[in-house]
Amino acid sequence: MEEQHEQRREIKEEEKIPEIVEDTIQHLNNPVTDLKPIVKKYLSAVQKVKKEGNKFFFSDGDARVEVRVVSDEIIRVRLAPHGVFLDDFSYAVPVVDQKVTTFKMIELEDHYAISTNTITCKVAKADFNISFVENLNQMVMSEDEAPMHWEENVEFGGYYVYATKKCRAEENFFGLGDKSGNMNLRGRHFQNWNTDAYSFGWDQDPLYRTIPFYVGVHQQAAYGIFFDNTFRSYFDFGKEDNQKTSFWADGGELQYYYIHGPHMMDVVKRYQTLTGTHPMPPKWALGYHQCRWSYYPEKKVKEIADGFRSRNIPCDAIYLDIDYMDGYRCFTWNKNYFPDPKRMIKELANDGFKTVVMIDPGIKVDDNYWVFKEGKAHNYFCRRSDDYFMEGHVWPGRCQFPDFTNPAVREWWGNLYKELVDIGVAGVWNDMNEPAVFGAGTFPNDVRHNYDGYRGSHRKAHNVYGMQMVRSTYDGLKKLMRNKRPFTITRAGYSGMQRYGCVWTGDNVATWEHLKMGNIQCQRMSVSGVPFCGTDIGGFSGEPDAELFTRWIQLGTFSPFMRAHSAGDTAEREPWSFGEPYTSINRTFIELRYRLMPYLYSVFWEHHRYGFPILRPLVMLEQENVGNHYRQDEFTFGDKILVCPVLEQGATSRMVYLPKGKWYNFWTHEILSGESEHLIQAALDHMPLFVRAGSVIPEYPVMQYVGEKNIDEVLLNIYYSDYEVNSFFYEDHGDTFAYEQDIYSEKKFSVKGDGQKLSIEQSVAGLYTPNYELYDYTVIGIPFKVNKITVDEKDVKDYYIDERNCLRFKSNKNFMTVKIYGE
Fold it and tell me: Which tens digit of pLDDT belongs to each residue from 206-227?
């Protein structure tokens, strides 16, 4: 073996080589006596190495690189240009816990190899290039095209930091969160700087949120890179040079995580072990929401509420935009518009409506305004480098802005919601938190931030400002609501924001292009770790026609967050605004969302508990099919329902690609084979939907709002399959945190047929017991004539075939095995 002739040795814990710190600090403290041209400096040959636990430190004599084993599939890399690392702190990754694994480092002739059970990180001795190799087949997943490099930032201090990777000819890229344009990122360049992007366009960049995480796919395998740097950052996916992929930032540390697959699903789930999943939302938050800038006065709000109930169109939430406030002062009420908000909110609640209000970060400079006085007295507002307060104009006029990176400020801000909670407000929407400032766009670079004691200018804190605002909102509401789940929305954020709130795609436009773009954006956010996402249905600005609004409602039915919203200078757009037949079509699809509520809720649990994304693009389902790298308008909600929205004006049919396996047309029950395209009819009252064979889809009766009716029985739609398929059905109290103490019910159904028999097995975990006792079965696609049905070996006498050729019967919910026999 060639390996036997190579010199190699395992680096032991006790082989400590003294750190090169003293001369580095002396170098950094020397005053600059003459300015020299700033040039990029690259890592050179490795000279020293040492091991400390699960960390390995390499040095070229000046710079140092840390390689840290996080798990079998995750390795973190950090660069210190002159040997001194920054404090190890991250808003995205609260704790870098090492997962239990075995690892070792071996020195070979030309490189060091740090290996886990799954992957190997190789550090080349001669040029410091780093690569990641899959152990099973020795495939190189990611490798440096050039060593990590940097250049000094003379104006602000610190460094611009750069990483350049090889980009293979067949490689494609996905993720990066809040970006517009095509799903596949190959050949494009991006910037991360949270921006108020009103009426943004196709390929416009940057937008509202920063998620510096992407997935690369080549040779049918996937890996991820998470560049945890909050400064203004950039990504180039082969645009400047089609053989290179680069990411860099205007400051901070070059710190990234390599996350191994080999499947995209694995990459995303492992990314979420770092940044967290979304907590279970209150179940009502998955209902239909109605919003406008703005509904006022109280009479108008009541008119909207009556419009839903009188037309029997389900709705769970009505929003109050900034006009509910007194002069746009946060945490106040305009008593001319809303003389008794507590009474109004209670009356809305009696009709099944939750009230959601907007809160912005800008606090009006007004010594008679209690919020400003408190913030000023405690020095909670941001200051500039010369110690002036950061001031800018937003809706209330001249404002100052809380420093949400200060824990004391977050605590204060969270407590400000007490009065809103006391009068019954159920959810809070944080807007304008990029942060947005009229004229200037955002804060100047020299604004100072506490950064949880780690200090920083706005260059460092800008991209996390909105995330820390919604964090303070979520934490405050959680405390004030006393074990009730908060519902929070944020417009801006950074990786990890999903731990605190849901998002929408921002101020979109009422065009068919934006319908297409919103569909892609929600999928991209989902595979970027932010699952609870939606669009402004109908478009925020501009005027949709009836067809566009109806198609948008259909897409919104399968968006995790379903909300219609519009600007104040546009015509109102409630589901009934365009008259018949559109009102009835919109009602049908909103009712469909409520019928599927138990399935949607179960999919959310699969995200929260296991890290699965809610929306899954075709490339995630079949990454080995290169054609799917360019299909972007279809997705599955969970893994059982394939959604194929109609995105072209006037279309009455569309081509649909079905992934491998067998699929049932949701509407007709026709069975189609996967791995092929099909032409599907799609009149305006129809959106193509397909259900994976073998699925169990639970269904509730239609309700006008979540919890309106006591559930006597649950309908189980079972789709015959001649291979085994597992499905999950999750239930809990719907609005508390008792699920964290296992007060939930997680049911697993296993379905399998063989041409003459169909078996359904159920297992149950958790301590929650639903109130209903019965399952009402609809079994679809049975290929044989039914002769006998048993539930736990007892015969079922009362069954029948309905008008759609579906088998119908009932049983107790606690069954273990149902068997259906043919003649």
Answer: 999 999 999 999 999 999 999 9
